[in-house]
Design a protein that fits this description.
Layout: E1 2-6, H1 13-21, E2 38-47, H2 50-53, E3 63-65, E4 68-77, H3 92-97, E5 104-110, H4 128-159, H5 164-172, H6 179-186, H7 194-208, E6 211-216, H8 225-229, E7 235-237, H9 240-251, E8 255-256, E9 265-266, H10 272-287, H11 294-305, E10 308-314, E11 332-335, H12 340-347, H13 349-353, E12 355-360, E13 365-367, E14 378-383
Parallel strand pairs: 1-4, 1-5, 5-6, 6-7, 10-14
Antiparallel strand pairs: 2-4, 3-4, 8-9, 10-11, 12-13, 12-14
Helix pairs in contact: 1-9, 4-5, 4-7, 5-6, 6-7
Length: 385
């Protein structure tokens, strides 16, 4: 499970990355602060089933705080993208290649309009330009990959009578694209000319690498760009600087704060500058339904765009525990069309191969191998040893 953080230079991508991972990354006010991709662990947040079951859990693969389960996912922050990156400008194809295995992309936009298309400081820049150019760049990156290999593929289809779908799947497998996604993008197209090839490439990107818009620097949006653009695009208002400040303050024990909350509690006395900063952040939080927006963006990627759910595999259906007595030890992120067999294979290949049946631990009833898992299910897998 990987989320790629994308955008032009100097919009707050690295701040977003550090705010969600607390990784030690370089953050500065100039283009191309990030040269090599930063990789770290962020967390998706969900209601833990421990509250429903009235048990105290002790997780192994995740964290539970106040009945909120935080499940790790990989976050990739890559170098800033500039117009014509697909032609090699800026850090060009290095940026794009770093995104090959990302399942979904978060496009961090400077919604305040205080940086131009190269990430340089300016005034009254229209952030809608960034929305358009970044999508175009990634679309053209897809197109160039497919076009570069097209003569080889078309030759195999024409002269060796190979299957077009399978040849394309083989070509794009390195991008983490599935046969289902290729088939959906291909539709009835035969890819007989360059126009169809480009149309297919763009559609394949749209299906396989969806983009969530994060309108960062909402605290500096004096021209009300968010208000204007949110009528046309689905954008999450963002305040990555505020999230990072809150996470660091919580880590230092200054405040009690969980990422995604629209509130926090002050635990220690603050000096004048700290109190001023905290008051400013608190005011911004209270005005936003998504808090700082950072946790909301990650959750939306996982649950709404990728359509994943959370299930809890256990070995003891009575105690909701594993063999060592750990209650609700694992929270697994699975597709919303997954079955108990899919879950079994996720736990271990041998368990999947030797699957017999499964138990819904909430109802204590056996479920079939074709049962479609639901969010919050607690499942025991029964397999031959």
């Amino acid at each position: 499970m990987k989320i790629g953080i994308v955008g032009k230079p100097n919009v707050g991508k690295s701040t977003f990355f550090k705010a969600t991972t607390l990784a030690d990354v370089q953050i500065a006010n100039y283009p191309f602060t990030t040269i090599n991709p930063n990789v770290g662990m962020g967390y998706v947040r969900t209601d833990c089933v421990c509250k429903e079951l009235n048990v105290k859990c002790n997780p192994k693969n995740s964290v539970c705080i106040n009945h909120q389960r935080f499940i790790p996912i990989e976050i990739i922050d890559v170098a800033g993208l500039v117009p014509d990156a697909h032609l090699g400008k800026g850090l060009g194809n290095q940026f794009l290649d770093d995104l090959r295995n990302a399942d979904v992309l978060i496009h961090v936009i400077d919604i305040s309009g205080t940086t131009n298309d190269k990430g340089e400081e300016t005034e009254n820049y229209d952030p809608e330009n960034d929305i358009k150019f970044l999508e175009d760049e990634i679309n053209l990156w897809f197109y160039n990959i497919i076009k570069r290999n097209w003569s080889k593929i078309s030759g195999k289809v024409k002269y060796e009578r190979n299957d077009l779908l399978k040849e394309i799947v083989s070509m794009v497998s390195g991008l983490g694209i599935t046969e289902h996604e290729v088939k959906a993008a291909l539709g009835d197209m035969t890819l007989k000319d360059d126009d169809e090839l480009k149309e297919f490439s763009f559609k394949l990107r749209e299906i396989s690498k969806k983009i969530l818009l994060f309108g960062n620097k909402i605290d500096k949006d004096k021209n009300k760009n968010f208000e204007r653009l949110s009528k046309k695009y689905d954008i999450i208002p963002g305040f990555a600087d505020g999230e990072l400040a809150l996470r660091l303050a919580a880590k230092a024990g200054v405040i009690d704060y969980l990422s995604g909350d629209a509130y926090f509690k002050i635990l220690k006395n603050l000096n004048t500058s700290q109190e001023k900063a905290i008051t400013f952040i608190k005011d911004k939080l209270q005005r936003s339904p998504t808090g700082t927006g950072v946790q909301s963006a990650i959750n939306k990627c996982i649950f709404e765009i990728l359509h994943y759910i959370v299930v809890y595999p256990v070995e003891d259906e009575g105690k909701f525990s594993d063999s060592k007595g750990n209650v609700l030890p694992d929270a697994r992120i699975v597709r919303n069309d997954s079955t108990p067999v899919d879950l079994a294979y996720m736990i271990h290949t041998d368990i999947g191969k030797n699957f017999i049946t499964a138990v819904n631990c909430k109802t204590k009833m056996n479920i079939s191998k074709n049962y479609v898992l639901k969010n919050g299910d607690v499942i025991k897998i029964v397999a031959n040893k």
